[in-house]
Amino acid sequence: MKKIVRVSVDLKNPNSFPKGFVNKKLLDATTERLIKIHQQQDDAEAMQDAAKYAKRVRERIGLSQQEFSSRIDVSLETIRNWEQGKRSPTGAAKALLKILDRAPEVALLALSA
Question: Domains in the chain, please, with CATH?
Answer without folding.
Answer: 38-112 (1.10.260.40)
